[in-house]
Every structure is written in C-alpha cells, then in structure tokens.
Amino acid sequence: xxxxxxxxxxxxxxxxxxxxxxxxxxxxxxxxxxxxxxxxxxxxxxxxxxxxxxxxxxxxxxxxxxxxxxxxxxxxxxxxxxxxxxxxxxxxxxxxxxxxxxxxxxxxxxxxxxxxxxxxxxxxxxxxxxxxxxxxxxxxxxxxxxxxxxxxxxxxxxxxxxxxxxxxxxxxxxxxxxxxxxxxxxxxxxxxxxxxxxxxxxxxxxxxxxxxxxxxxxxxxxxxxxxxxxxxxxxxxxxxxxxxxxx
Amino acid sequence: xxxxxxxxxxxxxxxxxxxxxxxxxxxxxxxxxxxxxxxxxxxxxxxxxxxxxxxxxxxxxxxxxxxxxxxxxxxxxxxxxxxxxxxxxxxxxxxxxxxxxxxxxxxxxxxxxxxxxxxxxxxxxxxxxxxxxxxxxxxxxxxxxxxxxxxxxxxxxxxxxxxxxxxxxxxxxxxxxxxxxxxxxxxxxxxxxxxxxxxxxxxxxxxxxxxxxxxxxxxxxxxxxxxxxxxxxxxxxxxxxxxxxxxxxxxxxxxxxxxxxxxxxxxxxxxxxxxxxxxxxxxxxxxxxxxxxxxxxxxxxxxxxxxxxxxxxxxxxxxxxxxxxxxxxxxxxxxxxxxxxxxxxxxxxxxxxxxxxxxxxxxxxxxxx
Lengths: 247, 369
Known about the structure:
The complex is a heterodimer. By secondary structure, chain A is of the alpha/beta class. Chain A has a single domain (2-182, 192-246), classed as 3-Layer(aba) Sandwich (Rossmann fold). Chain A is built from seven helices and twelve strands. Chain A has helices spanning 42-50, 74-80, 97-111, 119-132, 150-164, 180-193, 232-241, and strands at 2-13, 16-27, 31-35, 55-64, 67-68, 82-85, 92-96, 143-144, 168-172, 199-203, 217-222, 225-230. The longest helix of chain A has 15 residues, at 97-111. By secondary structure, chain B is α/β, with parallel strands linked by helices. In chain B, helix 5 packs across helix 6 (331-344). A nine-stranded mixed beta sheet of chain B has the order 1-2-4-6-8-10-12-14-16, with helices on one face. At the A-B interface, helix 2, strand 7 and helix 3 of A face helix 5 and helix 6 of B.
C-alpha cells in the first residue's frame, strides 16, 4: 500500500529553487535511504514532508495515503502519521520532556478520536522507552532537550518516534554526531519501530548507518532530484566512489 | 530650580522620627518628586495617580497565624527612634506613605521560625517594616486578595547572617503599586520570587541595598501582562560593600496592546571590589502592538568586579513552534505552551505552583509563527 507519493516536486526556500523535479514512492513496510552530497536538497525534502513554514512546493504533488497534503499544517500532518526526527532538535527550557510527550500524545489522540492514555500508564511507558534507549529516565523531568548532548537529543527523537508510533518516519541525519555506541542504540530503536504497516525515509550522509538499519531502497539525491536508485549495494558503491560519478 | 508640578495631594504630618520639621520634610519630598532622577524613574508611568492613592485609608492585612519567633506590633507616629533606614531622595513617594497613616506595622523575627510568615493584603496597607535579627532565617509569603486599587510599602532589614526567602504572588486585577526596599547586613541573604499578572496598572519598585560584605540577593521574576495592561518595574541593586553579590532574572510576557517598562540598575559604589552582579531581562511580545521599554544599567565605580547585564525583546522562536507542531500540537496550543515555558523558567520559590496555576493562557494575535 502506498504511504507516500512525491511526484515531480519542485520546491523553493527563501526564493531559491532547491528541489527540481523530485519523485519518491514509499510503501508500507519499506525503508528508503536518501543519500547525497551537501546542498543536494535532503533536508529540504524532510522539511517539505513535515510542512515547515518557509518551504514552498511550487509544482508537483505530495500525497500521503492518497491525500494531497501540500496545504496541510504541520500538526495536521503529524495527526495523519508523519513524523520528522530533526537533524538539530531544539531545546525548550520550561517544558519538561514528560509534559511535552504527554501533550503530543494527547493532541494526536484527540485529533484521531482515540482515548487519551492515562497518566500512570503513560509515565510507565515513557520511562521504559527511555531506559531501552539508554536514556536516564530522569531526563524526562528536564526541559525538552535542555542541556542534552547531541547523542541524547537524537535518542530523545527516537523515544518520541517510538511513543507516537507514526505511519511514516522521516529521519533527517539522525546519525550525525553520534558515536558508534549511540548509533547502535538509535538504529536498534528504528528497527524496533519498523514493521509491515509503516514506512521510513532515512536521510543520511554515511553508509555506516545502513549497516545497522538495512534499507530496502537507496536513492541518491543530487541537485534537487533523485539521480540514482538501487538497493543497499548502491550505498556501498557510494562509499567507495563518492558522488561525483553520478552528478 | 526644578519645575515643581508633582506634589502630594495633601500635606500629612510626618512622624517625629521621620522629621522634626514638617515644612522641611514636605519641601524635601517635593524637590525629590520633581528631581531629574525621579522623573526618569517615572518616565513611562504617570506618577500622580500613584501619589493620589497614598492617602487612601489602609485596610488591615490578614496576618494569618504568626509563626513562633515572630512578633508583630502596630506602632503609632509618636515613636522616637527611627524604626527603619530611609532616604527621602531614593523614594519620596514611599517616604510619604510613612506619613499618611497614623501607624506602621513593625514585624520582628528572631531564631528560626519553622513556619512561613504570611501577609495577605486586602487593599491599601499601612507601611510594614520587617526586621530579621542576626542569624534568623525566615520564609515570607506575600499575597494579595480583593480586586481593588491598592498600594503597599514594605521595608525589610536583614541582620547579620540572616536570610529571607520572600515569595510574592500579585494577581489582583486593579491599579497596584508595590514598593519594596531591603537592606542587607554582613552575610545576609535575600531571595525574591516575584510573580504577577492581571493588573491594569502595576508599578513595582524594588530597591536592594547590599550594605556589608557577604550580603547577597537573588531576584527572580515572572510576569504576564495581559491585553491592554501595563507593568512598570524599577529595580535598583546597590552594592555598597566589597564581596557582595546579586543575581536578577526578570521574564515578562507582553500581550497585545500591553506595555512593559523595565529599568534595572546595578550600582557598585567606590571601594567595593570582588562584587559579582548579573541582571537579565527577557521580554516576549505576544502581539504586534505590544510595547516594551527596557533599560538594564550598570554603574560601576570600582575595579575588580564581575558584572553582566542584558535585555532581550522578541517573539516566540518559529523553530520551537514548528518543533511542537511537528509532534501534533496545534499552533495555538504550541504558542501557549511555549509562552508558559518562558514564564516557568522564572517561576520559582515556595509559591511557584500557585503562580503557575494563576498565569492564564497567553493571548496572541500573531498566527504567522
């Protein structure tokens, strides 16, 4: 079943054309890795999918489960099941992680007419997820990402992914800034998330992440469009040859 | 000669301990009221409505149960020894307040009272003088009820080695003037947890005097200024001795058509090395027509001190709003959550939970972020 269908999308940011005819199809149960050199449009794709203000689709279409989402607000996309794991998660002092997670969970439950998780169950679940990601549960009491190391911020993104259980996870360079142990923890979290009903778009610079999260497809994004697609072996080839031979 | 257009509504008789000569006192008050320094302090708030409030009859506060070690007396004007340190020039309107009521309330604390002293203001209060004996530690809760215009003047004197943890929740919806002056002796420490919202006009004068070595003061404040409301905060931190320290954090949320004036002055006198002082004023504008005037000031006359001061005026960070929205939190709720977070970071002390319950959901007309 098609989860995400990006058809011939062009997009601009601050009057600069970044995506120039991008096509991508993601079905349930699939993991798609997006690789490419700096400035090729990888993060723009992630922000377009999440609906970040300032990122404008100028032509083409973005459909999620058959519905055109181009005009949807970011929170409406989240309610539909799109999740963006940020490359640079922000710090929000004054809102505890626990409070933020509960507000997110409740907002999604309300929008989808589901019953809210009761507070005791939620706390127990959130603590268990934190522990499974090698995050001290005391982190849940601190401000959102406040004073977290880079690795802790990325693990916190995965905690949110596992808690919210979206239909499509877009991971924007989740491996950047991680040491090898943290990388394994994060990868293990993503692998725990993936199943036959959801999809993952994995944006990364490096092949090493794909040793732990084995993708079904690898795409190379260059100058705003997909220039090459293949299986995991393409990533290995890129590791040896770089991107120059494709652009 | 200064142009004298500010004056007291009437000429109250000053108590003997304040002045032997009534005419001289009134002349000093009028000159101080019309001085350049005083005019600057009242540049953004009209003085006369506050002066007019001074002669309104006082309403006795509710003292609740006084903790053991705390003695309260009402003193009439015929007292001979000054019950407090004062300077007309520093606070002419507050000094005048000492004359209008035929009494003041003197509270003396000693030992280590285990229960907090609670003062519940129910309108205009007669001046209150709170004195802590040496090595006394006290917690003070100051709360305000009844939505009527009111003013209070509170004079605090902290003895050597004493400490006061002062929580103040001001949520009355009226015209409100609060004057607070604390003098700190050797190794005394003072902490103020100041929370406010709701007043159509609130003026907060806070003067802290670190008079002897080892004195330290911490002022943490969170205020929400609602649509069309006005908050004016005038803070002076006087470092009059070496090895004194202070920290100030003032967060204000300013909604549409609301106005905030903040003037925070750190004054380090001559021959006061090893002073450490910081001041941070952050203002979050929640509407296109919010007005914010902020002036953090450092006035330093001694080398070898550590000081930092700063002020920011801004709106919610759109990256923060997007982060919340990407997790499914609708934009209006995201803005409210972030605004409350901004207040939370400066909401501290024993009345913090109550304050968080009182702050409303900040209103914003800006849906662009």
